[in-house]
Amino acid sequence: MSSNCYIIYDNSIRHCIVIDPGSEHSLREIDFIESGRYSLDYIVLTHEHTDHTWGCNALIEKYPFTKIVCSEKCAQELPHSSDAYFRFYMDDPDYQYKVKKVDITVHDKDILDWNYISIEFIMTPGHTGGSMCFTLNNILFTGDTIMKYKLFTNKRFGSYEQMRSSISKLLSTYHNKGLTVYPGHGEIFKLDDYDND
Length: 197
Ligand SMILES: [Zn+2]
Hints:
Helices cover 25% and strands 26% of the residues. The radius of gyration is 16 Å and the shape is globular. It has a single domain, classed as Ribonuclease Z/Hydroxyacylglutathione hydrolase-like (Metallo-beta-lactamase, Chain A, 4-Layer Sandwich), CATH 3.60.15.10. The strands form two sheets. It has a six-stranded mixed sheet, with no helix packed on it. The two termini are 28 Å apart. A hairpin with a 2-residue loop joins β6 and β7. The chain contains four helices and eleven strands, in the order ββαβαβαβββββαββ.
């Protein structure tokens, strides 16, 4: 998949987190985890789209104690989200993919403590109903809510108005904090450089 998958890892304790594994077999992710002998603690999903979630099952088969974290709405949508994806984009109406489990659903302002680091969630519906962003130190992971070049709203399950208000919420919450955005597609950039026109 052409989406961005991120791995956060701590070499002192050799634990890691995977964000948005989008490729079916998660080969590169598993390769990285194995070669660094990391424990995979969490898989965090920014939203329910298949290009951000398709690799979940491969990872939890290999690492069954890994917990999958996403918003409540994302968890509700996950069982259906691949149907349209494979029908329209992969031209394969018979292919079925369901993320096998969700362990933790998070809400606005929830915090997940991981190895003395706080991961703070902010709900940002719009691109899809289940979209969320989160900060970790000075990084803001945005999924498909904010990317450098385009705004994309899912016509059936998203809302352009909701997305605009989620972006305003992000910009006002994190204004002038020097955060770097790690988006779901494309390159990283500074939040304060984001052009909201
Ligand atoms: Zn998406």
